[in-house]
Amino acid sequence: MNQAATQLHVAESFLIQQDWDAYTPEQHAVWAELVKRRMPQLAEHACEEYLDGFHQIGLREDSIPNLAEVNKRLGPRTGWNATPVSGFLPPDAFFEMLAARQFPTTTWLRKRESLEYTPEPDIFHDVFGHVPMHAHPVFADFLQQYGRVCSGLMHDKDKLERMGRLFWFTVEFGVIRQKGTIKLYGSGLISSHGESTHVINRSSDGGPEIRDFDLDAVLNQEFLVSEMQKVLYAVESFDQIYEAAKEAEHRLA
Length: 253
Ligand SMILES: [Fe+2]
Known about the structure:
Layout: H1 25-45, H2 48-56, H3 67-78, E1 81-84, H4 91-99, E2 102-105, H5 123-130, H6 137-151, H7 157-172, E3 175-178, E4 181-184, H8 187-190, H9 193-200, H10 202-205, E5 209-212, H11 215-220, E6 231-235, H12 238-252
Parallel strand pairs: 1-2, 3-6, 5-6
Antiparallel strand pairs: 3-4
Helix pairs in contact: 4-6, 6-12, 7-12
This protein binds fe (ii) ion.
Fe (ii) ion (FE2) binds near residues 121, 172 and 187.
């Protein structure tokens, strides 16, 4: 059934099963609260592709996603799977999974006391934040290409750091111009009310400067994980980041 999983070598020891029946009513209630808090803002400010993907993969407000059910819908669309893993992956395992169209997905959920922020990704960040975009064919190809390029750069820390910036300013904090306005697609924005509000109200809130996406600029743009973003890069279409990932391969080879 899951053909891509058989291709994994380095990542294999990190794969787990999601014990969906073990989630408690309180955990489902926390998920529902998280989704309810994010959806009104996202309905207006998320990109069309995210909102479309959310429905395509069958995410619901009332219960934590069952990854097997998500994959039944996602797999036939783009070949991606949300694959349960035990936690944070080392880079070689992470990139190997991306190159195999397997998105490493945590299964734990934050507690009610930390609705807005968790230092490590949980299933809300990973599935609500990331996975809907994997239903979009061009984004799907981009992310696999990104994993392939990085897998080939494991020997070079400096180049990997530059590729990390491409991930940060697209997959995590990417924005796109649609119908003349800035829309959100990066998971760090999608899953965080604070980060999104900072972008949406940027002119009155001292939020980030939004520059046109440029591969060289992104590869050279340092960032801090622990602070609100000061600069973001807007694409005009997802073709642009797919082309950028291909170009990065030539640029950094
Ligand atoms: Fe993420």
